[in-house]
Amino acid sequence: MLVIRFQRIGKKGQAYFRIVVTEHTKKPQGEFLELLGSYDPHKKDLKVKKERIEYWLSKGVKASPTVHNLLINKKVITGDKKQSWKAKKKLITDNSQPTTSKPPEAEELKTEEPAKEALSEPEKSAESPTAE
């Protein structure tokens, strides 16, 4: 199955894309059937061969969601935009759960117990010196 998609060129930090027709199983940087245009995301400059894009779309070739949305923005084709990516969901782990989820009654019991222990310790220490 053929697709119209981006092929990244340019060096690190200076992306530049070709818009190509290629087999969907080929590597993104591999060979392509036809060069349909280019896109510079820094300058927002799009150069396309409109007739050739319309030709390939009429033959049943599908555009990737990103290319499809870009062509709609530049009014090369008409239609609705497609969702091109989804945000990743954050994984909830046991360690990341807040500690305030404990009932407040349990916290109150913990604060009362040390106070009772503190009262019982001075009694023992008071008995020890007198016993010697």
UniProtKB/TrEMBL annotation:
Determine the domain of life of the protein's source: Bacteria
Q: Name one GO cellular component term.
A: cytoplasm
InterPro entries, per this entry? Ribosomal_bS16, Ribosomal_bS16_dom_sf
One Gene Ontology MF term: structural constituent of ribosome
From its record, what is one biological process in GO terms?
Answer: translation
Q: Which UniProt keywords apply?
A: Ribonucleoprotein, Ribosomal protein
Q: Which residues cross the membrane?
A: none
Per UniProt, the ranges with Polar residues bias are 93-102
Q: Region (Disordered): which ranges? A: 88-132
What residue spans carry the Basic and acidic residues bias annotation? 104-126
Q: Which Pfam families match?
A: Ribosomal_S16
Q: Which HAMAP family match?
A: Ribosomal_bS16 (MF_00385)
Name the UniProt record assigns to this protein? Small ribosomal subunit protein bS16
- Organism from which the protein derives: Candidatus Yanofskybacteria bacterium RIFCSPLOWO2_01_FULL_49_17
Species classification: Bacteria, Candidatus Yanofskyibacteriota
UniProt gene name: rpsP
